[in-house]
Amino acid sequence: MTQPVVRFAPSPTGRLHIGNARPALLNALFALNHGGRFILRFDDTDRERSKAEYADAIATDLAWLGIRPDLVVRQSDRTALYDAAADRLRAAGRLYACYETEDELDRRRKRQAARGLPPIYDRAALKLTDEEKRAFEAQGRKPHWRFLLEHRTVEWDDLVRGPCHVDGASLSDPVLIRADGTYLYTLPSVVDDVDLGVTHVIRGEDHVTNTAVQIQIIEALAGPGSAPAFGHHNLLTTASGEGLSKRLGHLSLGSLRDQGIEPLAVDALAVLVGSAEAVRPVRSLEELAQLVDLGRLSRAPARFDEAELHALNAKVLHHLEFADVADRLRELGAPADDRFWLAVRGNCSVFNDVVTWATVARGPVTPVIEDLGFCEAAAALLPPEPWGDETWGAWTRAVAEATGRKGKALFMPLRLALTGLDHGPELKAMLPLIGRERALGRLGGAVA
Protein backbone atom coordinates (compact mmCIF):
# COMPACT_ATOMS: atom_id res chain seq x y z
CA MET A 1 0.00 0.00 0.00
CA THR A 2 1.29 3.45 -0.89
CA GLN A 3 1.35 5.94 1.94
CA PRO A 4 -2.32 6.47 2.77
CA VAL A 5 -3.80 9.88 3.39
CA VAL A 6 -6.97 10.03 5.48
CA ARG A 7 -9.05 12.84 6.84
CA PHE A 8 -11.47 13.59 9.64
CA ALA A 9 -13.81 16.40 8.65
CA PRO A 10 -15.99 17.70 11.50
CA SER A 11 -18.23 20.72 11.20
CA PRO A 12 -17.34 23.19 13.98
CA THR A 13 -20.97 23.68 14.95
CA GLY A 14 -20.81 21.94 18.33
CA ARG A 15 -18.71 19.76 20.59
CA LEU A 16 -17.47 16.33 19.61
CA HIS A 17 -19.24 13.40 21.27
CA ILE A 18 -18.36 9.73 21.63
CA GLY A 19 -19.94 8.94 18.25
CA ASN A 20 -17.56 11.38 16.53
CA ALA A 21 -14.61 9.77 18.28
CA ARG A 22 -15.20 6.55 16.32
CA PRO A 23 -14.47 7.89 12.79
CA ALA A 24 -11.73 10.20 14.09
CA LEU A 25 -9.94 7.29 15.73
CA LEU A 26 -10.52 4.81 12.91
CA ASN A 27 -8.91 7.26 10.50
CA ALA A 28 -6.03 8.14 12.82
CA LEU A 29 -5.32 4.50 13.64
CA PHE A 30 -5.47 3.50 9.97
CA ALA A 31 -2.84 6.14 9.21
CA LEU A 32 -0.76 5.06 12.19
CA ASN A 33 -0.93 1.39 11.22
CA HIS A 34 0.08 2.02 7.61
CA GLY A 35 2.57 4.85 7.99
CA GLY A 36 0.14 7.36 6.54
CA ARG A 37 -0.94 10.96 7.10
CA PHE A 38 -3.96 12.22 9.02
CA ILE A 39 -5.63 15.48 7.97
CA LEU A 40 -8.00 17.42 10.21
CA ARG A 41 -10.31 19.37 7.93
CA PHE A 42 -12.86 21.74 9.38
CA ASP A 43 -15.96 21.70 7.19
CA ASP A 44 -16.95 25.23 8.12
CA THR A 45 -18.87 26.38 5.05
CA ASP A 46 -21.95 26.96 7.24
CA ARG A 47 -21.01 30.51 8.12
CA GLU A 48 -23.79 31.11 10.62
CA ARG A 49 -23.36 27.97 12.74
CA SER A 50 -19.58 27.46 12.50
CA LYS A 51 -17.74 28.97 15.46
CA ALA A 52 -14.02 29.38 16.15
CA GLU A 53 -14.54 28.23 19.74
CA TYR A 54 -15.99 24.94 18.49
CA ALA A 55 -13.02 24.43 16.19
CA ASP A 56 -10.67 25.05 19.12
CA ALA A 57 -12.64 22.62 21.28
CA ILE A 58 -12.49 19.94 18.57
CA ALA A 59 -8.71 20.32 18.32
CA THR A 60 -8.47 20.03 22.12
CA ASP A 61 -10.66 16.93 22.17
CA LEU A 62 -8.64 15.20 19.45
CA ALA A 63 -5.39 15.98 21.25
CA TRP A 64 -6.88 14.51 24.43
CA LEU A 65 -7.67 11.31 22.52
CA GLY A 66 -4.02 11.22 21.44
CA ILE A 67 -4.63 12.27 17.82
CA ARG A 68 -2.04 14.64 16.36
CA PRO A 69 -2.98 15.80 12.83
CA ASP A 70 -0.27 16.04 10.20
CA LEU A 71 -2.18 18.88 8.55
CA VAL A 72 -5.07 21.15 9.54
CA VAL A 73 -7.15 22.94 6.90
CA ARG A 74 -10.35 24.97 6.92
CA GLN A 75 -12.81 25.01 4.08
CA SER A 76 -13.53 28.68 4.72
CA ASP A 77 -9.98 29.38 3.47
CA ARG A 78 -10.44 27.37 0.27
CA THR A 79 -13.44 28.92 -1.48
CA ALA A 80 -11.44 29.79 -4.60
CA LEU A 81 -10.86 26.08 -5.21
CA TYR A 82 -14.58 25.35 -5.02
CA ASP A 83 -15.41 28.25 -7.33
CA ALA A 84 -12.94 26.96 -9.92
CA ALA A 85 -14.36 23.43 -9.66
CA ALA A 86 -17.91 24.72 -10.07
CA ASP A 87 -16.87 26.63 -13.19
CA ARG A 88 -15.31 23.48 -14.65
CA LEU A 89 -18.46 21.48 -14.01
CA ARG A 90 -20.62 24.17 -15.60
CA ALA A 91 -18.38 24.24 -18.65
CA ALA A 92 -18.65 20.45 -18.93
CA GLY A 93 -22.45 20.59 -18.72
CA ARG A 94 -22.52 18.74 -15.40
CA LEU A 95 -23.73 21.65 -13.23
CA TYR A 96 -27.02 23.26 -14.17
CA ALA A 97 -29.14 26.10 -12.82
CA CYS A 98 -32.53 25.43 -11.23
CA TYR A 99 -35.10 28.04 -10.22
CA GLU A 100 -37.77 26.09 -8.31
CA THR A 101 -38.63 27.30 -4.84
CA GLU A 102 -38.71 24.84 -1.95
CA ASP A 103 -42.52 25.00 -1.92
CA GLU A 104 -42.65 24.14 -5.61
CA LEU A 105 -40.31 21.21 -5.13
CA ASP A 106 -42.33 19.99 -2.15
CA ARG A 107 -45.58 20.05 -4.16
CA ARG A 108 -43.86 18.19 -6.99
CA ARG A 109 -42.64 15.48 -4.61
CA LYS A 110 -46.15 15.05 -3.23
CA ARG A 111 -47.56 14.63 -6.75
CA GLN A 112 -44.93 12.02 -7.48
CA ALA A 113 -45.75 10.18 -4.25
CA ALA A 114 -49.46 10.20 -5.15
CA ARG A 115 -48.60 8.53 -8.47
CA GLY A 116 -46.43 5.94 -6.73
CA LEU A 117 -43.21 7.43 -8.09
CA PRO A 118 -39.97 7.91 -6.12
CA PRO A 119 -39.27 11.50 -4.99
CA ILE A 120 -36.50 12.05 -7.55
CA TYR A 121 -35.95 15.44 -9.14
CA ASP A 122 -37.39 15.34 -12.66
CA ARG A 123 -34.70 17.58 -14.23
CA ALA A 124 -37.30 20.07 -15.37
CA ALA A 125 -34.69 22.83 -15.17
CA LEU A 126 -32.75 21.26 -18.03
CA LYS A 127 -35.64 22.11 -20.34
CA LEU A 128 -35.67 25.81 -19.47
CA THR A 129 -34.92 28.18 -22.32
CA ASP A 130 -32.64 31.18 -21.86
CA GLU A 131 -35.72 33.40 -22.04
CA GLU A 132 -37.42 31.47 -19.22
CA LYS A 133 -34.30 31.74 -17.10
CA ARG A 134 -34.15 35.49 -17.65
CA ALA A 135 -37.80 35.75 -16.69
CA PHE A 136 -37.18 33.93 -13.41
CA GLU A 137 -34.24 36.19 -12.65
CA ALA A 138 -36.32 39.25 -13.46
CA GLN A 139 -38.69 38.05 -10.74
CA GLY A 140 -35.76 38.14 -8.33
CA ARG A 141 -35.20 34.38 -8.26
CA LYS A 142 -31.63 33.21 -7.83
CA PRO A 143 -30.75 29.78 -9.13
CA HIS A 144 -29.49 26.88 -7.12
CA TRP A 145 -27.18 24.50 -8.93
CA ARG A 146 -27.51 20.74 -9.34
CA PHE A 147 -24.96 18.17 -10.47
CA LEU A 148 -26.09 16.11 -13.46
CA LEU A 149 -25.69 12.49 -12.47
CA GLU A 150 -25.00 9.86 -15.08
CA HIS A 151 -27.63 7.16 -14.96
CA ARG A 152 -25.18 4.32 -14.48
CA THR A 153 -24.29 1.94 -11.70
CA VAL A 154 -21.43 3.12 -9.52
CA GLU A 155 -19.44 0.31 -7.92
CA TRP A 156 -16.73 0.26 -5.26
CA ASP A 157 -15.13 -2.31 -2.98
CA ASP A 158 -15.90 -0.95 0.46
CA LEU A 159 -13.18 -1.44 3.08
CA VAL A 160 -15.84 -2.44 5.63
CA ARG A 161 -18.86 -3.64 3.69
CA GLY A 162 -17.23 -5.31 0.70
CA PRO A 163 -18.59 -4.89 -2.87
CA CYS A 164 -21.15 -2.08 -3.06
CA HIS A 165 -23.09 -0.48 -5.87
CA VAL A 166 -25.63 2.30 -6.30
CA ASP A 167 -27.69 2.96 -9.41
CA GLY A 168 -27.34 6.63 -10.31
CA ALA A 169 -30.83 6.56 -11.82
CA SER A 170 -32.25 5.97 -8.33
CA LEU A 171 -30.88 9.29 -7.06
CA SER A 172 -31.88 12.91 -7.48
CA ASP A 173 -29.33 15.20 -9.02
CA PRO A 174 -27.83 16.70 -5.85
CA VAL A 175 -27.85 20.41 -5.14
CA LEU A 176 -24.22 21.55 -4.83
CA ILE A 177 -24.72 25.32 -4.56
CA ARG A 178 -27.55 27.08 -2.77
CA ALA A 179 -29.44 30.03 -4.22
CA ASP A 180 -27.43 32.38 -1.99
CA GLY A 181 -24.21 31.13 -3.58
CA THR A 182 -23.01 29.08 -0.59
CA TYR A 183 -21.82 25.52 -1.01
CA LEU A 184 -23.43 22.47 0.48
CA TYR A 185 -21.22 19.78 1.97
CA THR A 186 -20.70 17.69 -1.16
CA LEU A 187 -18.66 19.81 -3.58
CA PRO A 188 -16.13 21.26 -1.08
CA SER A 189 -15.61 17.78 0.39
CA VAL A 190 -14.90 16.23 -2.99
CA VAL A 191 -12.66 19.08 -4.14
CA ASP A 192 -10.64 18.91 -0.91
CA ASP A 193 -10.25 15.14 -1.13
CA VAL A 194 -8.83 15.51 -4.64
CA ASP A 195 -6.64 18.51 -3.85
CA LEU A 196 -5.25 17.07 -0.61
CA GLY A 197 -4.55 13.67 -2.13
CA VAL A 198 -6.88 11.76 0.19
CA THR A 199 -6.52 8.06 -0.61
CA HIS A 200 -8.98 6.53 1.87
CA VAL A 201 -12.28 7.98 3.07
CA ILE A 202 -13.33 6.21 6.30
CA ARG A 203 -16.67 7.38 7.66
CA GLY A 204 -20.04 6.30 9.01
CA GLU A 205 -22.41 4.08 7.08
CA ASP A 206 -24.93 6.93 6.89
CA HIS A 207 -22.79 8.24 4.01
CA VAL A 208 -23.02 5.13 1.81
CA THR A 209 -25.50 6.66 -0.65
CA ASN A 210 -23.42 9.85 -0.83
CA THR A 211 -20.53 7.79 -2.11
CA ALA A 212 -22.03 7.15 -5.55
CA VAL A 213 -22.61 10.89 -5.99
CA GLN A 214 -19.14 11.80 -4.80
CA ILE A 215 -17.43 9.25 -7.03
CA GLN A 216 -19.21 10.71 -10.05
CA ILE A 217 -18.20 14.27 -9.11
CA ILE A 218 -14.58 13.21 -8.48
CA GLU A 219 -14.44 11.48 -11.85
CA ALA A 220 -15.98 14.53 -13.55
CA LEU A 221 -13.22 16.68 -12.06
CA ALA A 222 -10.21 14.35 -12.05
CA GLY A 223 -11.03 11.58 -14.51
CA PRO A 224 -12.05 7.92 -14.27
CA GLY A 225 -10.42 5.86 -11.56
CA SER A 226 -9.45 8.93 -9.52
CA ALA A 227 -11.76 8.27 -6.56
CA PRO A 228 -10.25 7.25 -3.21
CA ALA A 229 -11.05 3.99 -1.47
CA PHE A 230 -14.11 4.16 0.76
CA GLY A 231 -14.92 2.41 4.02
CA HIS A 232 -18.23 2.87 5.82
CA HIS A 233 -18.20 1.71 9.43
CA ASN A 234 -21.12 0.93 11.69
CA LEU A 235 -22.38 3.74 13.88
CA LEU A 236 -22.39 4.03 17.65
CA THR A 237 -25.73 4.19 19.44
CA THR A 238 -26.60 4.52 23.11
CA ALA A 239 -27.06 1.31 25.10
CA SER A 240 -30.80 1.60 24.42
CA GLY A 241 -30.23 1.88 20.67
CA GLU A 242 -30.79 5.64 20.41
CA GLY A 243 -28.68 7.51 17.88
CA LEU A 244 -25.93 9.71 19.27
CA SER A 245 -26.07 13.44 18.66
CA LYS A 246 -24.58 16.68 19.92
CA ARG A 247 -27.59 17.16 22.19
CA LEU A 248 -26.36 14.32 24.41
CA GLY A 249 -24.03 16.66 26.21
CA HIS A 250 -23.02 14.18 28.91
CA LEU A 251 -21.44 12.05 26.18
CA SER A 252 -19.38 14.90 24.75
CA LEU A 253 -15.67 14.26 24.90
CA GLY A 254 -15.26 17.33 27.07
CA SER A 255 -17.80 16.00 29.56
CA LEU A 256 -16.15 12.58 29.66
CA ARG A 257 -12.82 14.29 30.28
CA ASP A 258 -14.35 16.31 33.13
CA GLN A 259 -15.70 13.08 34.65
CA GLY A 260 -12.13 11.79 34.88
CA ILE A 261 -12.42 9.21 32.11
CA GLU A 262 -9.05 8.18 30.70
CA PRO A 263 -8.58 8.97 26.99
CA LEU A 264 -7.29 5.44 26.37
CA ALA A 265 -10.56 4.06 27.75
CA VAL A 266 -12.53 6.20 25.30
CA ASP A 267 -10.12 5.24 22.49
CA ALA A 268 -10.48 1.51 23.13
CA LEU A 269 -14.25 1.42 23.59
CA ALA A 270 -15.01 3.78 20.68
CA VAL A 271 -12.98 1.60 18.31
CA LEU A 272 -13.33 -1.99 19.56
CA VAL A 273 -17.05 -2.06 20.37
CA GLY A 274 -18.95 -3.46 17.42
CA SER A 275 -15.88 -5.26 16.06
CA ALA A 276 -14.57 -8.81 16.11
CA GLU A 277 -12.07 -7.79 18.81
CA ALA A 278 -13.04 -7.95 22.45
CA VAL A 279 -13.14 -4.60 24.23
CA ARG A 280 -10.02 -4.46 26.39
CA PRO A 281 -7.69 -1.93 28.01
CA VAL A 282 -4.73 -0.71 25.95
CA ARG A 283 -1.65 1.24 26.95
CA SER A 284 -1.15 3.22 23.72
CA LEU A 285 -2.70 4.13 20.39
CA GLU A 286 0.02 2.07 18.75
CA GLU A 287 -1.23 -1.01 20.58
CA LEU A 288 -4.82 -0.18 19.66
CA ALA A 289 -3.91 0.32 16.00
CA GLN A 290 -2.71 -3.26 15.83
CA LEU A 291 -6.17 -4.45 16.89
CA VAL A 292 -8.11 -2.50 14.27
CA ASP A 293 -9.18 -4.23 11.06
CA LEU A 294 -11.88 -2.39 9.11
CA GLY A 295 -12.92 -5.65 7.47
CA ARG A 296 -13.78 -7.12 10.89
CA LEU A 297 -16.23 -4.43 11.94
CA SER A 298 -19.81 -5.60 12.41
CA ARG A 299 -22.53 -4.46 10.05
CA ALA A 300 -24.89 -3.98 13.02
CA PRO A 301 -24.91 -0.74 15.03
CA ALA A 302 -22.38 -0.71 17.86
CA ARG A 303 -23.95 -0.03 21.26
CA PHE A 304 -22.03 2.30 23.52
CA ASP A 305 -22.68 1.53 27.17
CA GLU A 306 -21.60 4.14 29.71
CA ALA A 307 -21.32 1.47 32.40
CA GLU A 308 -18.92 -0.44 30.17
CA LEU A 309 -16.86 2.72 29.70
CA HIS A 310 -16.53 3.26 33.44
CA ALA A 311 -15.56 -0.38 33.99
CA LEU A 312 -13.00 -0.17 31.18
CA ASN A 313 -11.67 3.09 32.62
CA ALA A 314 -10.83 1.33 35.89
CA LYS A 315 -9.11 -1.47 33.99
CA VAL A 316 -7.02 1.04 32.04
CA LEU A 317 -5.88 2.63 35.29
CA HIS A 318 -5.06 -0.75 36.80
CA HIS A 319 -2.75 -1.50 33.86
CA LEU A 320 -0.81 1.78 33.97
CA GLU A 321 2.74 1.66 35.27
CA PHE A 322 4.25 4.29 37.55
CA ALA A 323 6.17 5.86 34.65
CA ASP A 324 2.84 6.46 32.87
CA VAL A 325 1.43 8.50 35.76
CA ALA A 326 4.36 10.02 37.65
CA ASP A 327 3.78 13.55 36.37
CA ARG A 328 0.05 13.32 36.98
CA LEU A 329 0.65 12.23 40.58
CA ARG A 330 2.84 15.28 41.15
CA GLU A 331 0.22 17.57 39.65
CA LEU A 332 -2.34 16.29 42.18
CA GLY A 333 0.10 16.52 45.08
CA ALA A 334 0.03 12.76 45.61
CA PRO A 335 3.15 10.76 46.50
CA ALA A 336 5.10 10.41 43.26
CA ASP A 337 6.70 7.06 43.96
CA ASP A 338 6.08 3.62 42.56
CA ARG A 339 5.23 2.08 45.96
CA PHE A 340 2.26 4.41 46.35
CA TRP A 341 0.96 3.93 42.80
CA LEU A 342 1.27 0.15 42.85
CA ALA A 343 -0.51 0.11 46.21
CA VAL A 344 -3.51 2.21 45.16
CA ARG A 345 -4.05 1.81 41.40
CA GLY A 346 -6.28 -1.25 41.86
CA ASN A 347 -8.67 0.89 43.92
CA CYS A 348 -8.96 3.77 41.46
CA SER A 349 -12.06 4.09 39.30
CA VAL A 350 -10.86 7.46 38.04
CA PHE A 351 -7.39 8.86 38.41
CA ASN A 352 -8.39 11.55 40.89
CA ASP A 353 -9.18 8.77 43.36
CA VAL A 354 -5.46 8.88 44.17
CA VAL A 355 -6.19 12.02 46.18
CA THR A 356 -8.27 9.95 48.61
CA TRP A 357 -5.55 7.34 48.99
CA ALA A 358 -2.86 10.02 49.33
CA THR A 359 -4.84 11.39 52.26
CA VAL A 360 -5.08 7.90 53.76
CA ALA A 361 -1.32 7.54 53.42
CA ARG A 362 -0.31 10.97 54.72
CA GLY A 363 -3.34 12.35 56.53
CA PRO A 364 -5.19 13.98 57.98
CA VAL A 365 -7.52 11.04 58.65
CA THR A 366 -10.29 10.83 61.21
CA PRO A 367 -9.99 7.31 62.59
CA VAL A 368 -13.07 5.20 63.26
CA ILE A 369 -12.47 3.56 66.66
CA GLU A 370 -14.84 0.69 67.45
CA ASP A 371 -12.92 -0.66 70.46
CA LEU A 372 -10.38 1.71 71.96
CA GLY A 373 -8.86 -0.97 74.19
CA PHE A 374 -8.25 -3.27 71.26
CA CYS A 375 -6.71 -0.45 69.20
CA GLU A 376 -4.43 0.59 72.05
CA ALA A 377 -3.30 -3.01 72.47
CA ALA A 378 -2.58 -3.21 68.76
CA ALA A 379 -0.66 0.07 68.91
CA ALA A 380 1.56 -1.30 71.67
CA LEU A 381 2.53 -4.18 69.38
CA LEU A 382 3.57 -2.03 66.40
CA PRO A 383 7.12 -3.06 65.45
CA PRO A 384 9.88 -0.50 65.00
CA GLU A 385 10.62 0.86 61.54
CA PRO A 386 11.78 0.37 58.83
CA TRP A 387 8.59 -1.22 57.54
CA GLY A 388 8.13 -3.30 54.43
CA ASP A 389 5.71 -5.74 52.82
CA GLU A 390 6.10 -8.20 55.69
CA THR A 391 5.22 -5.73 58.44
CA TRP A 392 1.43 -6.00 58.18
CA GLY A 393 1.45 -9.80 58.39
CA ALA A 394 3.90 -9.94 61.30
CA TRP A 395 2.04 -7.25 63.24
CA THR A 396 -1.45 -8.71 62.79
CA ARG A 397 -0.23 -12.15 63.82
CA ALA A 398 1.12 -10.62 67.02
CA VAL A 399 -2.16 -8.77 67.62
CA ALA A 400 -4.14 -11.96 67.00
CA GLU A 401 -2.05 -13.87 69.52
CA ALA A 402 -2.39 -11.14 72.14
CA THR A 403 -6.14 -10.50 71.74
CA GLY A 404 -7.50 -13.80 70.46
CA ARG A 405 -9.18 -12.06 67.54
CA LYS A 406 -9.13 -13.34 63.97
CA GLY A 407 -10.72 -12.76 60.59
CA LYS A 408 -12.97 -9.73 60.17
CA ALA A 409 -13.01 -9.06 63.92
CA LEU A 410 -9.26 -8.61 63.74
CA PHE A 411 -8.75 -6.82 60.46
CA MET A 412 -11.75 -4.48 60.11
CA PRO A 413 -11.18 -2.50 63.36
CA LEU A 414 -7.56 -1.98 62.31
CA ARG A 415 -8.58 -0.80 58.84
CA LEU A 416 -11.20 1.60 60.26
CA ALA A 417 -8.71 3.05 62.72
CA LEU A 418 -5.80 3.36 60.28
CA THR A 419 -7.75 4.67 57.25
CA GLY A 420 -11.13 5.90 58.50
CA LEU A 421 -12.72 3.72 55.79
CA ASP A 422 -14.11 0.21 55.58
CA HIS A 423 -12.58 -0.40 52.16
CA GLY A 424 -9.46 0.43 50.21
CA PRO A 425 -6.08 -0.86 49.08
CA GLU A 426 -4.43 -3.78 50.82
CA LEU A 427 -3.01 -2.66 54.14
CA LYS A 428 0.04 -4.81 53.49
CA ALA A 429 1.00 -2.15 50.93
CA MET A 430 -0.52 0.87 52.69
CA LEU A 431 0.88 0.40 56.19
CA PRO A 432 4.51 1.25 55.22
CA LEU A 433 3.18 4.37 53.47
CA ILE A 434 1.26 5.44 56.58
CA GLY A 435 4.31 4.94 58.78
CA ARG A 436 4.65 4.21 62.46
CA GLU A 437 4.07 7.69 63.84
CA ARG A 438 0.78 8.21 62.00
CA ALA A 439 -0.33 4.64 62.76
CA LEU A 440 0.25 5.17 66.50
CA GLY A 441 -1.73 8.40 66.43
CA ARG A 442 -4.68 6.85 64.58
CA LEU A 443 -4.85 3.75 66.73
CA GLY A 444 -5.05 6.01 69.73
CA GLY A 445 -7.93 7.90 68.17
CA ALA A 446 -5.95 11.03 67.20
CA VAL A 447 -6.17 12.66 63.80
CA ALA A 448 -2.86 11.82 62.04
From TrEMBL:
In which organism is this protein found?
Answer: Alsobacter soli
Please list the residue ranges annotated as the Glutamyl/glutaminyl-tRNA synthetase class Ib catalytic domain: 5-310
Reactions listed under catalytic activity: tRNA(Glu) + L-glutamate + ATP = L-glutamyl-tRNA(Glu) + AMP + diphosphate
In UniProt terms, what function does this protein have?
Catalyzes the attachment of glutamate to tRNA(Glu) in a two-step reaction: glutamate is first activated by ATP to form Glu-AMP and then transferred to the acceptor end of tRNA(Glu).
Q: What is its EC number?
A: 6.1.1.17
Keywords for this entry? Aminoacyl-tRNA synthetase, ATP-binding, Cytoplasm, Ligase, Nucleotide-binding, Protein biosynthesis
Which principal EC class is assigned to this enzyme?
Answer: ligase
Q: Does the keyword DNA-binding apply?
A: no
Q: Name one GO cellular component term.
A: cytoplasm
Primary localization class, coarse: cytoplasm
Residues forming the motif 'KMSKS' region are 243-247
- What protein name applies here? Glutamate--tRNA ligase
Domain spans labelled Aminoacyl-tRNA synthetase class I anticodon-binding: 384-445
Q: Name one Pfam family in it.
A: Anticodon_2
The Gene Ontology terms for molecular function here are: ATP binding; glutamate-tRNA ligase activity; tRNA binding
Motif 'HIGH' region covers 10-20
Q: Where in the cell is it found?
A: Cytoplasm
A Gene Ontology annotation in the biological process aspect, one of them, is:
glutamyl-tRNA aminoacylation
List, alphabetically, the InterPro entries matched: aa-tRNA-synth_I_cd-bd, aa-tRNA-synth_I_codon-bd_sub2, aa-tRNA-synth_I_CS, aa_tRNA-synth_I_cd-bd_sf, Glu-tRNA-ligase_bac/mito, Glu/Gln-tRNA-synth, Glu/Gln-tRNA-synth_Ib_cat-dom, GluQ/Sye
Protein encoded by which gene: gltX
Provide the assembly information.
Monomer.
Q: Which family does it belong to?
A: Belongs to the class-I aminoacyl-tRNA synthetase family. Glutamate--tRNA ligase type 1 subfamily.
